[in-house]
Amino acid sequence: MLAVLVGLLSSSLLIATANPAQAAYAQIEGSGSTWSQGIVAQWISDVDANGIKITYNGAGSSQGRKDFAQNVTDFGITEIPYQGKDEFGAVDTAGDREFAYMPIVAGGTAFTYQVKVGGKLVKDLRLSGDTIAKIFTNKITNWNDPAISADNNGRKLPSLTIVPVVRADGSGTTAQFTAWLDQQFPSIWQPYFGRTGLTSYYPKKSGTKTISAAGSDQVMNTISSSQGNGTIGYVEYSYPVNKKYPVVKLLNKAGYFVEPTQYNVAVALTTAKINTDTTSQAYLTSILDGVYTSTDPRAYPLSSYSYMLLPTGAKDQRMTTAKRQTLTDFMFYSLCQGQSKAGPYGYSPLPLNLVQAGFDQLKKLSTADPAVDFTDRDVTKCNNPTFVAGDLSKNKLAEIAPQPPACDKQGAGPCGTETGTAPTTPAAAAGKPTAAAGGAPVAAAPGGDAPAAAVDPGTGEVASTDTTTAAAADTSIAVPTELVSGRAGDTKVFGALAVAELLAIILAPGVGAVYFKRRQRRRQGAAA
Description:
Low-confidence stretches: 4-22, 424-511
Signal peptide: 1-23
Region (Disordered): 402-467
Transmembrane segments: 493-516
Oligomer: single chain
Domain PBP: 19-335
Pfam families: PBP_like_2 (PF12849)
Radius of gyration: 23 Å
């Protein structure tokens, strides 16, 4: 059956591209964030068959903002807005170039590591924010430190030098991490940094074991290398997901150790404050203080958004009608159907209110140039697992997010003790979860309430849940979205997604494909 579907797909693609509307498009260029580069690269690949050609250079958020301001690129991607001045006193603004911020995806900044015991990789490592802050300011320098053992409820790690891996380039990931340090652990961070505030360039002190790497991919490669034993670094969750590498379970304000799954990120970002002043240049940017301090047991504290710098000026020197159309259609797909891929790739999809606001920002391209086609845009028909029909403020993903297992509560567990010295304290024994089907522990609600759902002890992912995607009554047929993060069994996830997408293309084309075909027919009719 799969062979038949592939054959039908090939025929469908030939028909769809027999008369491509390539004249309507022009190649566009962007640069910036490596934090969001994984999902951006996938979206670029997805739209390529429709004649939409995009090149993207993951040079770091700082470089992305500079390139955009200097008219080197058509768009930029960054995790933080323009700061006015950077850490070195240089101008950090868009200058005279008109633009708008547009959220494109959510996610969590994760701490991935390599620590081996007897040649076996330690998993299920838990750390508090205080411990993380001391590791990255060189106050904790060995994996056998009592603070690390305490975070893991008595579990002991070997005597091994800690090697922090930080970004060498100007990085939005660094900015997000240091903003959290500055807000939550000022007495640790500020003496090390020498002043208050965030930085995009992590300060590496001479004489320490800290090493630098350019780009998230190089941080990840450094940690996962054969010489990486003892390392720990910060990257967007997608990087360890793709490498199948463990990440730290980070202690939240509710007293639970959690991973940055799409569920936990969605829960945390319900407390983000979004600038809703449409007259402000900072419209749609976020304040994350409430995210850091969320008391929901499921919330991952280092959750945030990535933004596109969208060129909105009618006289923008780089933009043409064809380039604006390329950017419009690319981001229409990315904000709509593309969000359904966020979870499996290690990100979290945007909620409906931000997708709608993103559509409003995107429309500014057709305002700048009325020749840009912006018809057939209905946000309620997007296949997005966060959507709740008729309610812009709700987030389905956050509503169905599982509670953390009892063994991940501070003072209990930890959930897995396959490496290191297992704790033998009464508290640890009390925190041991009961087995569910397949050997996964049962997730208990805070306070010892009835179990909620089976959760994988190594990944924090729910083993089974309702994956129904809410949609408006008048929506077109959409592909069901598998609500998993890809940490466990991601081969099956991608296989299921591939089959679902084949069926969707052949039997019930998604909104994006329908839009592209309609616009192609209109342009062919106009040419005739």
